[in-house]
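job 3f2a | input accepted
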Amino acid sequence: MAYNLLKGKKGIIFGALDEKSIAWKTAQRCVAEGAEIVLTNAPIALRMGEINKLAAECNAPVIPADVTSMDDLNNLFTKTKEHFGGGVDFILHSIGMSLNVRKGIHYTEANYDHMHKTMDISAMSLHRLLQVAMKQDAINEWGSVVALTYIAAQRVFPDYNEMADAKALLESITRSFGYQYGIKKHVRVNTISQSPTRTTAGSGVKGFDGFINYAEKMSPLGNATSDQCADYTVSLFSDLTKMVTMQNLFHDGGFSFTGVTQPVIEQMEK
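job 3f2a | predicted structure (270 res):
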């Protein structure tokens, strides 16, 4: 069911790769709620994914952008403003990559060139895109920016590796830049800490099935799906949440505040 929550609004969705990705689901949900969108991803991701299928469905242009390149981001926002005839009302940052994770390198043996790239792509990219947006005055008054994160930023999940550090930095940037953008133009910046979700990127984490099964047993409501995350993201893009900013918002079925559940106790007693 659609509620026209984003009627007349315009936005940019970073990171849609395929039908499993939260960004893909969010793009669909934004359009269903009345928004117009621009899709963007790194050139290599555009070649590997199926974004043109989503673009056709959403009647959205695809503008490639490497989030480590200021030139690419400047081009993205310039072309987006030209396309819409003005600024945007919302942005989704759904970006994350770790070569150490991909290559199975243990956290204590991290390759620091890889780690630097992880931080650059997964966290500093948020600072970079917000800086460019602010300089170009590309986000409208009372706009909303949402980045996706995970509870490993606060708690230890050993196999999540250096992505935990990247998510911690991402959440810090959300608060620091959220303050600056809030006082400048009432733009709000938040993160959603989502349940472990079976996306193409998430499935690359060692022991991911264990993550999901454990979280399911530890969540009173069960794990939140990618479709449900898209719904929650839309609510943060809407005018119903105009006073919510600089927050890390848990969307995890209650996992984040549950000490232990009966199913977990019973499993441990077997």
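job 3f2a | The domain at 10-269 is CATH 3.40.50.720 (Rossmann fold).
job 3f2a | closed
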